[in-house]
Amino acid sequence: MIPRQYWIMTALLFLLALAMAIYVWQLRRREVLNSPPPATAQHVAPPAAGPLQQATLWVAYDKEAALHRERISIPLTSNQQQRAEELLRALMNRYAEKNSPHPIAAASELHDVYLVDPGLAVLDLNATFVDSQTSGVLAEELTLASIMETLTANIPSILRVKILVDGHERETLAGHADLSGAYDVAEVSELAKQLTTR
Questions:
Q1: CATH assignment of 76-195?
Q2: Which residues lie below 8 Å from residue 160, measured CB to CB, with a gap of 6+?
Q3: CA atoms within 13 A on the CB side of 74
Q4: DSSP characters over the chain
Q5: Using alpha carbons only, how large is the chain's radius of gyration in Å?
Q6: Fewer C-beta within 10 Å: the chain N or C terminus?
Q7: Per-residue pLDDT of the chain (198 residues; tens, 9 = 90+)
Q8: Which residues contact 116 (CB under 8 A, 6 or more apart)?
Q9: Those residues with Cβ within 8 angstroms of residue 147's Cβ, 6 or more apart along the chain or in another chain
Q10: What is the pTM of this model?
Q11: Dihedral-angle region of residue 175 (phi above 0 means left; psi in -120 to 50 means alpha; beta otherwise)
């Protein structure tokens, strides 16, 4: 038979372990309640330099299935590559706004724009931009038309546009719009005319 003192010792150790578990649980709960909320990823554009200039953005409006022309003032340089980057960042910032007419994820961003002669612009977007794109033929056409019309309205020397995702080719934007080749901006402009409301 087990002596009575071992039963008492076992019971005390069990109560001590239980008290420690409750104490640790309370500390963890207090830490979770007092910790700041996790930061959400947000698109951060690099600061632009240069004089403010008038530019035209072609903004997609999903509810109307249309493109609207919007005039803005942003710092633009004479360097066409930097100019293209600033224009597209302004467009993406417009789409990342709270009440955006064509919402994209806040972490969407443009990595780079490469202007290749003669008249080819290669855009490198991050995967978040593509993954947050609303799937559907019209929604994807609006996105592409918006990007290309914004570029060509401000940089007429761009004749074709190729889109990469994180530096790699991708078959489609969100299942419909073909990204495997370069787009002829003249053909996209014809589509944009049909989608333009003002």
A1: 3.30.300
A2: 119, 120, 121, 182, 183, 184, 185
A3: 26
A4: ---HHHHHHHHHHHHHHHHHHHHHHHHHHHHHHHSPPPPPP---PPPP-S-EEEEEEEEEETTTTEEEEEEEEEE--S-HHHHHHHHHHHHHHHHHSTT-SS---TT--EEEEEEETTTEEEEEE-HHHHHTSPPSHHHHHHHHHHHHHHHHHH-TT--EEEEEETTB--SBSSSSSB-SSPEEHHHHHHHHHHHB--
A5: 27
A6: N
A7: 678 888 888 889 999 999 999 999 988 888 877 766 554 444 444 555 567 888 888 888 888 888 888 998 888 777 888 888 999 899 888 888 888 888 788 888 888 898 887 789 898 988 888 887 777 777 788 888 888 889 988 988 989 889 888 888 887 676 667 677 788 888 777 766 666 654
A8: 122
A9: 88, 91, 123, 161, 163
A10: 0.68
A11: left
Place of tokens 């064509």: 102
Place of tokens 């490469």: 114
Write out the two tokens for 12.
């005390």
Non-local (6+) Cβ contacts of 192 within 8 A are 58, 67, 145, 148, 149
Q: Position 115: which residue type?
A: L
Name the one residue in this structure whose structure tokens are 């409750």.
Answer: 22
Structure tokens at 105: 């994820």
